[in-house]
Structure formats: structure tokens, C-alpha cells
Amino acid sequence: xxxxxxxxxxxxxxxWGDSSDATEWRQEVQLILHALG
Length: 37
What we know:
Layout: H1 11-17, H2 22-36
């Protein structure tokens, strides 16, 4: 389910998309997904 927050339709992605920290946020989510395997 966590991978859904990175999708185009995600409200979280829309909210972070305009942020200067968007890339860092996306990388952190990907690291969590990788750790959970």
C-alpha cells in the first residue's frame, strides 16, 4: 500500500509536488519501501 503514495493520483504526491523538498520526500518513501521489501 505504501507504494500508492508515489502514484500520480496520490494527494500526498500532489501536496509534495510543489515543495522544494519533493525529491527528498520521494527518495525517503522509496527507501522505506525498499527496507520493507
